[in-house]
Amino acid sequence: SQQGEEDPQALSIQEGENATMNCSYKTSINNLQWYRQNSGRGLVHLILIRSNEREKHSGRLRVTLDTSKKSSSLLITASRAADTASYFCATTTSGSRLTFGEGTQLTVNP
Amino acid sequence: DTAVSQTPKYLVTQMGNDKSIKCEQNLGHDTMYWYKQDSKKFLKIMFSYNNKELIINETVPNRFSPKSPDKAHLNLHINSLELGDSAVYFCASSQAPGQGYEQYFGPGTRLTVT
Question: What is the CB neighbour count within 10 angstroms for residue A109?
């Protein structure tokens, strides 16, 4: 069964606005990762947050993790047209198996 | 320098044929993976190798056979291709199989079975 589910499935915003994407999962995790996929390309790792962390920042990215609610959010501040992509959360429960969510398609309009 | 490369990028073939996709990583990683991404962009792991040893083998038809000649290469051979095999196949690698290692993805191979 699928572990992560992203919300919303699609998000369209104007350049300069903030974009927030949410991810929910079903079972206990060791860590959660966010990846970006530009159209026709492979996935690129953005950030990893461990189960004992609540918030992490990387440049314009802010990730939160609430293990009690089994959810995570990815905030992209001051969005740019180049941020247009699909964003996936992925969870690790054991070993190296990553389970991906369905993804959020973000469109940033210039 | 391409970290994880795959060939071919596009593959169009007929049902019943046998085809292979090749993957190479120059990151010095120990672990490599094959994923399948369907038309709805859902990404599912198929196989994982660590130092040429199979460590993840998901429920995949046995028409799919991975081969790792060395830890820098992981190939995927598919026999008797079916329409439902049409998808984008991604190779990835990570430093080690343990938890908490980010994965580096190749550009993908778009397989179309007609």
Answer: 11
Q: Whole-number mean pLDDT of chain B? A: 93
What confidence tier does B97 reach under pLDDT thresholds 50, 70, 90?
confident
Which pLDDT value is given to residue A42?
Answer: 93
Q: Which residues of chain A have pLDDT under 50?
A: 1-2
Inter-chain touch B90–A95, beta carbons under 8 Å: no
Q: Is A48 on the interface with B (CB under 8 A)?
A: yes
Nearest CA among B103, B112, B57 for reference residue A37? B103
Count other Cβ atoms within 10 Å, centred on residue B14: 8
